[in-house]
Amino acid sequence: MSTLKEQVIIVTGASSGIGKATSIRLAKEGAVLALADINEKSLALTLQQCAQASNDNQKHLTRRLDVCSTTDIEQFVKDVMAELGSITHVFNCAGINPTTLEISQISDDYWHKMVDTNLKSMFTMTRACLPHMKSGGSFVNVSSVLGLHPTEGLGVYCATKYAVIGMSKCLALETGRRGIRVNVICPGPINTPTNNSVREGKERVDATAATIGLGRLGTAEEVADVVAFLFSEQSRYVNGSVVEINGGMGMPA
């Protein structure tokens, strides 16, 4: 029997990529999902696939959500509690990919959009959910390999992803005393439509793959498997951990 059966799990950024794949994976495990994204049309497709994957025809909740809005997040959490009655786990997956810019080229608007989407949203969602969570619950927050390794031209993005790790580790200390775990995943190059290498075409994908030990980009489903593990009872002593999912990036065969 799945340890996630009938557990209520929030997923932000659920309409595509890692968020979508993870939603479907959790649905297969029998979880009850509260799915959020700013793209309502794509979110509806995720819901359809989750419904098909659910073992027991679970009723899932979806909402259009601007994760940059504190008001939106607080209302979303109220809706989850009103309709689903509890919150067990939270997957803070919503985020935006960067544009390569030198610091002198970065506008205030770009800074705020990046920080609000990749970092503030995690803080705001966590703050809103924690009062409703009990021992045994957990958070998985999405950082990046660029939250571990500085990269020229991606200063703001790296800053947000480094900060996700720092805040998550502090939260793991605070919430651990309540039996609530907080962990971080750091995906490397994953074959999703928003991945920079994928957007630039096969030649760039092949060049990126050549820098990875496994010789290929990862899939969103492979990331989803790790998230499902971190929510499961099998990871009950995993807290404050940073899990790299990168196929051996920087260690080519």
Automatic annotation (TrEMBL):
CDD domains: SDR_c. It comes from the Eukaryota. PROSITE patterns: ADH_SHORT (PS00061). It holds the Pfam family adh_short_C2. Keywords: NADP. One of its GO terms (molecular function) is oxidoreductase activity. InterPro entries: NAD(P)-bd_dom_sf, Sc_DH/Rdtase_CS, SDR_fam. This is 3-oxoacyl-[acyl-carrier-protein] FabG.
